[in-house]
Amino acid sequence: MLTQSVFSGRKIEKLLNDSIRMMWLSQNQKPSYKTINRFRVNPKVDALLESLFIQFHSQCLNQNLINDKAIFIDGTRVEANANRYTFVWKKEYSQS
Questions:
Q1: What are the CB-based long-range contacts (under 8 Å, 24+) for 72-75?
Q2: Which residue numbers delimit the Transposase InsH N-terminal domain (predicted)?
Q3: N or C end: fewer C-beta atoms under 10 angstroms in the chain?
């Protein structure tokens, strides 16, 4: 969903009904957009996702699927809406 730049609950609901990939990911469960949005705004979700990420990371380390020694620096460029040929470097963006 986020990889496809879909953020709207209604659009996610539509993808769950139309996209085979989304049907597989949701195990053919089709929640309504109201259920999706309630989940997204629930204050407990942040703590739940953080806990899940920590458990997932630990499992990957235990199975030697990842190496915790590697460090990556994000060099993301953010394209400005005003001019598609203008880029703002993250360093400059975070200072303003």
A1: none
A2: 4-40
A3: C
Nearest Cα neighbor of 78 from 61, 62, 57, 93 is 93
Identify the CA nearest to 92 among candidates 82, 73, 72, 77.
77
Q: Does residue 89 sit in helix, strand or coil? A: strand
| Per-domain residue ranges of the chain | 1-41
Cα–Cα dist 32/70, whole Å: 40
**Model confidence pTM above 0.70:** no
What tokens does 42 get?
Answer: 């629930």
The neighbouring-strand residues paired with 89 are 77
Measured distance CA(44)–CA(87) in Å, rounded: 36
